[in-house]
Structures are given as C-alpha cells and as structure tokens.
Amino acid sequence: MTIDIGVPMTKAPRLIAIANQKGGVGKTTTVINLATALAAVRKRVLVIDLDPQGNASTGLGLGQGDRRLNAYHVLIGSVPLGEAVTATAIPGLDLVPADVDLSGAEIELAGVDDRLHRLKAALDGELDDYDYVLMDCPPALGLLTVNAFIAAHAVLVPLECEFFALEGVSHLVRTIERIKKSHNPNLDIQGIVLTKFDRRNNLSDEVANDVRAHFGDKVYETVIPRNVRVAEAPSHGKPVLLYDKGCAGSQAYIHLAGEVLRRERSLAA
Ligand SMILES: Nc1ncnc2c1ncn2[C@@H]1O[C@H](COP(=O)(O)OP(=O)(O)OP(=O)(O)O)[C@@H](O)[C@H]1O
Ligand SMILES: [Mg+2]
Predict the structure, then answer these.
(1) Ligand 1 pocket, 58 CB below 6 A?
(2) 9 CA distance to ligand 2 centroid (A)?
(3) Ligand 1 midpoint to CA 230 (Å)
(4) Is the CB of 222 under 6 A from ligand 1?
(5) How far apart are CA 160 and CA 209, in angstroms?
(6) From the CA of 49, which ligand is nearest?
(7) What ligand has the least distance to the C-alpha of 248?
(8) Which strands sit side by side in the sheet containing 86-87, from one edge to the other?
(9) Which class in CATH covers the domain with range 14-268?
(10) I want to staple 154 with a disulfide (CB 3.0 to 4.6 A). Which of 132, 190, 245, 269 is the partner?
(11) What is the pTM (predicted TM-score) of this model?
C-alpha cells in the first residue's frame, strides 16, 4: 500500500549540521530532541555524533560498551557507514555513535589529502534509508566540523540567550561562507535557534532581540526555554520528549521541528 502524503516516498535525504564553536549552547540537546520530534512524525532520521564527548550517543541511551564501531571508524575509512549505524530505542531514529577515539582523528588524518571530504565520501550513496541526517558537531571549527560542513546541505546554529551569544558568530558565519566558496556551493545557514531562554531575565529578551535584528528571518520563531527537565533528561539516556513530553522544553522542540519541516518544504518548493 502506498500512502499519499504529498511528497515522494523516496527522495534524497537532507543533511543538517548542528554547529556552534561555542560550548554548551544546546547543540546536542537540539540534535537529540529535533531528531526525536522528526522521528515522531514518521521521518526516518540518522544522527551522526561527531563529538568525541559522545553526548548525543549518551543522551540517546547508548552505553559506552555499545560504541565499538563509531564515527571514528567511518572517518578513518576502516568500516562502511552501515556497520557503524545502530538503532536507538526510538522507532525511526538511528545513530552513528562517537567515543573519545574520535579526538584522535584530527591528528591521524593530518597529512591525508582528502581529510576534509572523509565524511562526505563515507555518506555518499549510503543514506537512502533516511529523510534527515543530523550531525552533532563538537564545540570547535576544526576537522570534524569542517567535514560536517562539506557533507551537509545546511547548518542549524543554536545560540544561547546570554550576554556573549553573538561573540564568535561572525567567525562561524565566515567559516560557513569559506566552505561554501571552496567546497560546497549549496551550503547555507538553515536557521538559528535561540536556546536556554529565561523569561525572568531581561537579558534573555535583549539577546533575542539583538539576534533577530542581526539575522532577521533566519531566526526561528520558536525559542527553547531554559527548563530543568531538558537538563535532567540526558542522565536518564532519554530525549526530553520521552522523559517528560508535556514540559515546556519538549513542547518547544516539537514546535521547532514543525518550523524546520515547513522551512525545508519551502526550500524544496
Ligand atoms: N533548554 C535547556 N534548559 C536547561 N538546560 C539545558 C537546555 N539546553 C541544554 N541544557 C543543558 O546545558 C548543557 C549544555 O547543553 P548541550 O550539551 O546540548 O550543549 P552543546 O552545545 O552540545 O555543548 P558542547 O559544546 O559541550 O557540545 C547540558 O547540561 C544540557 O542538559
Ligand atoms: Mg554537544
């Protein structure tokens, strides 16, 4: 049986890198919960954990012992992508995990000619099973993030609503522009999402206004609130959407997924 949902059942997957070289801004939280929300509306989603910290893998419930084949092996080229893919407890959501090995990739690939294209080469032709591939980048603009930018169609940037939010963003934008010019002409910022918004704090409002003044409609209307349930969920190995679906953080991520899908649809039109 085929179900007409208005889009072809087989289409090229969209690859989105979630990146900001600033640490702790909500990249991993956004990857985990956006992926879960997309899977909940029957999208087939692959998360690639590109951070040696492995937080996305932990947050999706994968123990250290289950990461024997991981993003490191994919980048080094020692296994094909499929061997490093593991299912998660969430139907429709798969994961290429990471562990601390990945921190060695930068050094091991230092002298290798195609080191920036490793991930793209490993993914090419291997993603037919997926609608969306979300890549969780580490807090740096090094080899791992550049590999993600070269493989990606778009970058989603989480920005934390705090005083230094915009610091470093121009460097990030310049890096994306450079990769676009030299390696990946279609690369663009898919959107910017404001995270950890605290409505009791005037500074959050000021930062949100500044970011909107600067980036206009690149910024999603959905704002992710600072919410203790969001912070608790990873220690239970669950997306907050499963840990406490009704909390403000979960609801915000559901709204964000809706906006991402609408934006993706208008890009495809
Ligand atoms: N909306 C939120 N409300 C409360 N806590 C949050 C929220 N989003 C993220 N956190 C917490 O803030 C910390 C940093 O979040 P996260 O790991 O998603 O950031 P990151 O940008 O991936 O960090 P890194 O740069 O280290 O990879 C985590 O402890 C996370 O649980
Ligand atoms: Mg992270």
Answers:
(1) no
(2) 32
(3) 8
(4) no
(5) 13
(6) 2
(7) 1
(8) 86-87, 93-96, 45-49, 132-136, 14-18, 154-160, 188-197, 219-225
(9) alpha beta
(10) 190
(11) 0.95
What is the whole-number distance in angstroms between the Cα of residue 11 and the centre of ligand 1?
32
Which residue, by CA, sits nearest to atom 6 of ligand 1? Answer: 231
User: Taking Cα atoms as reference points, which of 154, 124, 120, 127 lies closest to residue 11?
Assistant: 127
Residue 46 has pLDDT above 90, yes or no: yes
* pLDDT above 70 as % of the chain: 96
Give the pLDDT band of residue 6 (cuts 50, 70, 90). Answer: very low
CB of residue 226 inside a 6 A radius of ligand 1: yes
**Residue 68 pLDDT > 60:** yes
* Structure confidence by residue, pLDDT tens digits, 207-237: 999 999 999 999 999 999 999 999 999 999 9
Range with top average pLDDT, 2-6, 125-129, 152-156: 152-156
Between 214 and 165, the more confident residue is: 214
Domain ranges for the chain: 14-268
